[in-house]
Specification:
By secondary structure, this protein is an alpha/beta fold. Helices cover 39% and strands 14% of the residues. The structure holds 4'-deoxy-4'-aminopyridoxal-5'-phosphate. 4'-deoxy-4'-aminopyridoxal-5'-phosphate binds next to helix 4.
Length: 433
C-alpha cells in the first residue's frame, strides 16, 4: 500500500485554524524537513500509529521520556489505579516523597529535590536559585545546548530553535540575554577565558553533559572535569541539565557515567514516565534556599501531581528491578547503529554516528562533529531525504538533523532488523539526492 498522510494533512490544516502553526511545540510541525506531520492516534510498545492507519517504529519516544516504550502495561495499570483516587490535590502526598527518595538514591548529588511540571520550569527555577545563592547574575551556557524556552536560556539554543533558524527569539529582553554568556561546547580554553574575564560575576555554568539538542554530541575525554574544576575555582555553581540524559544514559544519569558531581541537577522526561514533570535538586545547603525552607520563591499548582508521580515511580521501579536494564538497552542501540552505519558505508557515506547508551544520532557529514559549529556543517538536505524515506517505510525519527534519537526497552531485534533494512533504501535515496 502506498504511503499516505491524507487524513493527517486535513487534520494539520484544521489544527492551524486554532493553534499557532498547528502544533503545541515547534519541531512537531515538520517545518525543518517539510511535508505533513503524521497525527498520532495511539502508541504501544516500540510503535506509534497515526490517524491514516500507518504504523511506525518509534525512535522519538515523546522526545525521551518513553524509555520503557509506550503504554507499558504496568505503568498503565498503576496510572489507572491512581486515576480512581483523583487527579490533583494541591496538598502533599506520599508519592512525592517516594519519588524524591528514589531520585536522591539514584543521583546522590541531589540531596533535596523539588518537582515542577517541565524541564523548562526546572532550569528556570534552578537559575534563580543559583543567582540568589551566589549573589551573582551571569550565567554561562553552551552554544547549541537547549534548556527550555525561558528568557535566560533561549540564547544560542539548540533543538527547535536551531531547526527553525531562530536561536535568539524576539521578545527576550536584551537586559536578560545580556547576562547569559555563550561558549562553544567541548572548548575548555574558551570557558577558561570567559572565567578569566567575568569570573567574579558568574553565578553558574549550565550544561547538558551529553548534549542532545544539536544532534547528539559527546564530551571530549576530560572536558567535563575541566568544566567542574573551573566552576569550583571561581566559586560558580555547576548545573547539569540532565532533563534528557537523566535515567537515560545510566540510572544515575551522565554524572554517574562520567563520574562528575555537579552542585545542582535538572531532570524531566524519564522521571515522569510520559506525564508532565520536571525536577531540580542538588546540595542541601543550596536547595534549602528554596521557599518555604528559604527565601527563593518557586511554586506550582500542579507540581508533584499524583498522576505524574505515579507514572514516574512506576517507570523508575521497573527500570531498577532489572539489573541489566541499561546494558541491554545499550547493546540493542549499538547493534542498530552498527547496522545502519554499515548500510551508509555501503553507499560510501562516511557519516558521523554518535551513541551514548540508548541515545544516538547521525550527522550527515564526513567531518568530525564536537560542537554547534561542526554540527551545523551537516548536509540538512541529505538528512531530510533520509528522514522522509524512513518515514515512508514506517520508521519514525525526530524530524530534524539537530535532535537525538532514543531506543526503548520495548524495541525488539525485529524492529532493529527492519530499521537497518529501511536505512539501506533510505541511503539509496540520499545517494540520488
Ligand atoms: N533541558 C533539556 C536538556 C532538554 O532536552 C529539554 C527538552 N527537550 C528541556 C530542558 C526542556 O524541557 P521541557 O520541554 O520539558 O520544558
Amino acid at each position: 500500500m502506498a504511503f499516505k498522510l491524507d487524513k493527517s494533512a486535513t487534520a494539520f490544516a484544521e489544527a492551524k485554524r486554532y493553534i499557532p502553526g498547528g502544533v503545541n511545540s515547534p519541531v512537531r510541525s515538520f517545518r525543518g524537513v517539510g511535508g505533513t506531520p503524521p497525527f498520532i492516534a495511539k502508541a504501544a510498545g516500540s510503535h506509534i500509529f497515526d490517524i491514516d492507519g500507518n504504523k511506525y517504529i518509534d525512535y522519538v519516544g515523546s522526545w525521551g521520556p518513553m524509555i520503557l516504550g509506550h503504554a507499558h502495561p504496568e505503568v498503565i495499570a498503576e496510572l489507572s489505579d491512581a486515576l480512581q483516587r483523583g487527579t490533583s490535590y494541591g496538598a502533599p502526598t506520599l508519592l512525592e516523597t517516594e519519588l524524591a527518595r528514589l531520585i536522591t538514591e539514584a543521583v546522590p548529588s541531589m540531596e533535596l529535590v523539588r518537582f515542577v511540571n517541565s524541564g523548562t520550569e526546572a532550569t528556570m527555577s534552578v537559575l534563580r536559585l543559583a543567582r540568589a545563592y551566589t549573589q551573582r547574575n551571569k550565567i554561562v551556557k553552551f552554544a547549541g545546548c537547549y534548556h527550555g524556552h525561558h528568557d535566560s536560556l533561549l540564547v544560542k539554543a539548540g533543538s527547535g530553535a536551531t531547526t527553525l533558524g531562530v536561536p535568539d527569539s524576539p521578545g527576550v529582553p536584551d537586559t536578560i540575554a545580556g547576562n547569559t554568556i555563550t561558549v562553544e561546547y567541548n572548548d575548555a580554553q574558551a570557558l577558561t577565558t570567559v572565567f578569566e574575564r567575568h569570573g567574579q560575576d558568574i553565578a553558574a555554568v549550565i550544561i547538558e553533559p551529553v548534549p542532545g539538542n544539536m544532534g547528539l554530541i559527546l564530551p571530549r575525554p576530560g572536558y567535563l572535569e575541566q568544566v567542574r574544576a573551573l566552576t569550583e575555582k571561581y566559586g560558580a555553581l555547576l548545573i547539569f541539565d540532565e532533563v534528557m540524559s537523566g535515567f537515560r544514559v545510566a540510572y544515575g544519569g551522565a554524572q554517574e557515567l562520567y563520574d562528575i558531581t555537579p552542585d545542582l541537577t535538572c531532570l524531566g522526561k524519564v522521571i515522569g514516565g510520559g506525564l508532565p514533570v520536571g525536577a531540580y535538586g542538588g546540595r542541601r545547603d543550596i536547595m534549602e534556599h528554596i521557599a518555604p525552607a528559604g527565601p527563593v520563591y518557586q511554586a506550582g499548582t500542579l507540581s508533584g501531581n499524583p498522576l505524574a508521580m505515579t507514572a514516574g515511580l512506576a517507570t523508575l521501579r521497573l527500570i531498577a528491578q532489572n539489573p541489566d536494564f541499561y546494558e541491554k538497552l545499550t547493546s540493542m542501540t549499538t547493534a542498530l547503529c552498527a547496522g545502519v552505519q554499515a548500510q551508509a558505508l555501503a553507499f560510501g557515506f562516511n557519516f558521523q554516528f554518535h551513541q551514548v547508551g540508548s541515545m544516538f544520532g547521525i550527522f550527515f557529514t564526513d567531518k568530525p562533529v564536537y560542537d554547534y559549529n561542526s554540527a551545523k556543517r551537516s548536509d540538512v538536505g541529505a538528512f531530510n531525504t533520509f528522514f522522509h524515506a524512513m518515514l515512508e517505510q514506517g520508521v519514525y525519527l525526530a524530524p530534524s538533523q539537530f535532535e537525538a534519537a532514543f531506543m526503548s526497552s520495548a524495541h525488539t531485534h525485529t524492529d532493529i532488523g527492519a530499521t537497518i533494512a529501511a536505512s539501506g533504501n533510505a541511503f539509496a535515496r540520499v545517494a540520488e539526492y
